[in-house]
Fold:
Amino acid sequence: MNLISNVWNHPKTSVAGLLIAVVAIARVLAQQGLTLGTAGNGTVVTLVSAIATALLGLLARDPEGQPSSTASTAKLGAWALIALLLPLPFTAGCSGITVAQDIVNWTPALQCAVTTVDSTAALLAPQDAPIFTAATVGFDAASNLLVAQAKAYLANPNASTLAQMQAQVVTFQQQVNAALLQAARITDPASQQHALAAIQAVATIVTAILILVQSISSKSQVVWMAAHSKIKLAAVRPLVDDSTAAAVVASHYGEPVELARAQVARAEFAETQAGF
Structure:
């Protein structure tokens, strides 16, 4: 009777617990390769997991009355738990081919973000444009090379093409981090805001690709990649906006922004722990 009364008296908590259980079970089934059939371009397991996650998002949005510190803490705790239960969207691939395809899928967004960077200098104050241009001058070449290497790896996934992609994604990440530090030197507030926003869009995508490359790399290869990342994420962390990063990830994977925000935070923590 206590169980029934608890469910009756706390329906929202009970529903949240049930949905979290559904997401957890779906994750275990996916890890075991059980799909329960197909649903469109995905599987029944991924569809059920996505629906449960979306419902959790709606549940977390509903404060049931006036907001309070308790409600805010509960909402944060719910999304933190979801982030722990769910694999990162950009590390969910089970094979090198799956991950390679995901990397290639990111490349149009990367090229679009670099194009935006190319046009941003015109929006800056005259004294700030040269700083921005010098900081981002290598983005076009770096992005084109990374796109070409991702497609090469997808067509021929071997140790050689993987090594080339590992080196290039680290090189590009370092260019982006250096550009963020340079953009922070811009003194005009409006110019700095435009500059950082444009660079961060590229940074978010490059980081997503970096994580994908890591997921198909050996431990020793990840150590090598981290050792060549001289400008660490901690150095540029104060310059980036969480909402921008979450919006980029949510748009690409078609998921709730709140979930993407939790996943981005988890990815950042994992990258820092790995030495990036």
Summary: The beta strands are 38-39, 42-43.
